[in-house]
Amino acid sequence: MDLLRRPLHTFLTRATSSVPVAADEEYKITGIYSFGKGLIKRGVIQGSETAYKFLSPISTGQLVMSKLNAWEGALAVVPHEFNGTFVSPEYPVFDIDPEVAEPSYVKHLICWQPFWEMLTPRGSMVRRKRTTPETLLGTVAPLPDIDEQRRIASRLDATLSRADGVQALREKMATLRENLGASFITSAIESATESVRMGDVVVFERTPIEIDPDSEYRNIGIRSFGKGFIRHPPVTGSNLSKLSYFTFSENALALSNLMAWEGGISVTRSEDTGYIASNRFFFYLPADDRVNTSYMRHFLLSRQGQSLIASACSAGAERNRTLGRKRFEDLVFRLPPRPVQDRVARTLDALTERLDAAHSEPALDALRPSILNAAFTGQL
User: Fold this and answer.
1) Helix, strand, or coil here: 18?
2) Is it the case that residue 315 has pLDDT exceeding 80?
3) pTM for the full model?
4) Carries keyword Cell membrane (predicted)?
5) What integer is the mean pLDDT of 164-184?
6) What is the DSSP letter of 269?
7) pLDDT tens digits for range 45-55
8) Distance in angstroms (rounded) separating the CA atoms of residues 304 and 301
């Protein structure tokens, strides 16, 4: 059974409740995860700490969208715990008409990947495209009558709750791994006998490549939160962005200059060297045998390392915090003896690999998209 499809402006209206920022006032700031993962609390700031002239308060039941990342699922219906927090102008806010749309139905709809694909056309330079409020409001999506929406939302809530329980267990294990890693890194730093400049122990190295419009290339990216590389499928050179591209070596410390502050850091392996990367990514090799790049990855993903990274980023708001190469290379930090680095890297690498293997459930990962697809194609 095909569901009735209607444009979102039939139940969404743009909220216009932005407020001027006062330098001496405090604001609880909210951001949005990509891939339908909801809102994130970004802490409290003083008005004097942001360049924005206006911020938007959000209320329970409203819909919030990231202009920059809506195409990859950065949308959310506001839950109660985020009521009264603020978002920047990069996050348009919309009111949902409860007479036309059930908020719990909309909450599931915006987690459906085919819905994200409706928001921003795929193609070259996709990460530079923005989804406008007008694009969202004009998007045509499955929207049956209100009773059917409630039935579907209720079925989805029940069906997905067990998957959410397993996901919660995964997150608990990830927290345990993070805490254990933090303990190892802190102990390693305490053993350090010297402070070094980053640019003296690692060397910037990447090789420019001339892009042929008719040749195929495999492009690489880096996930946030230390989750490794994104290996994009092959595309022709004509479909790459107009950025410069490079090849890189195995065992290189890799950082996204846009997302290093959010854990966009990894280490290249042999299987990665067939890929290319844009100038948005920095690659560093050890200057000598004082540095283990795997240890450096774990260190830079730690609380201490992320604090260092933040100090080397531009003072932009939200996702506009760019890591500067010179600022990064000028960072000074305490470097443990090489045997300590090797031991920490070996232990944390093995722990990560074992936990990932133990808690990797491809069928479970595919379950949620499959259920959502069934729901919004009239099969639930």
Assistant:
1) coil
2) no
3) 0.57
4) no
5) 79
6) -
7) 999 999 999 99
8) 8
Residue 360 above 70 pLDDT?
no
Domain 193-335 = CATH 3.40.50.720: no
Q: What confidence tens digit (pLDDT) does each residue in 65-119 have?
A: 999 899 999 999 999 999 999 999 999 999 999 999 999 999 999 999 999 999 8
CA–CA separation, 96 and 78 (whole Å): 11
Q: Tell me, what's the pLDDT at 7?
A: 96
CA separation for the pair 245, 71 (Å, rounded):
24
Higher pLDDT residue, 68 or 319? 68
Q: List, in sequence order, every beta strand (DSSP E) within 174-329.
A: 194-197, 202-204, 207-209, 216-217, 220-222, 229-231, 235-236, 245-247, 253-256, 265-267, 277-278, 281-286
| Tokens at 11, concatenated | 């139940």
CB within 8 A of 315, min separation 6: which ones? 321
Q: Contact at 8 Å (CB) between 219 and 256? A: no
CATH number belonging to the domain at 5-143, selected among 2.30.30.100, 3.90.220.20, 3.30.200.20, 3.30.450.20: 3.90.220.20
pLDDT at 288: 96
Which residue has better confidence, 323 or 17?
323
Q: Where in the chain is the domain with CATH 3.90.220.20?
A: 5-143, 193-335
Convert the chain into a string of H (helix), E (strand) and C (coil): CCCCEEEHHHCEEECCCCEECCCCCEEEEEEECCCCCCEEEEEEEEHHHCCCCEEEECCCCCEEECCCCHHHCCEEECCHHHCCCEECCCCCEEEECCCCCCHHHHHHHCCCHHHHHHHCCCCCCHHHCCCCHHHHHHCEEECCCHHHHHHHHHHHHHHHHHHHHHHHHHHHHHHHHHHHHHHHHHHHHHCCCEEEEHHHHEEECCEEECCCCCCEECEEEECCCCCCEEECCCEEHHHCCCCCEEECCCCCEEEECCCHHHCCEEECCHHHCCCEEECCEEEEEECCCCCCHHHHHHHHHCHHHHHHHHHCECCCCCCCCCECHHHHHCCEEEECCHHHHHHHHHHHHHHHHHHHHHCCCHHHHHHHHHHHHHHHCCCC
Contacts of 269 (CB under 8 A, 6+ apart): 250, 251
Q: How far is CA 368 from the centre of its chain?
A: 19
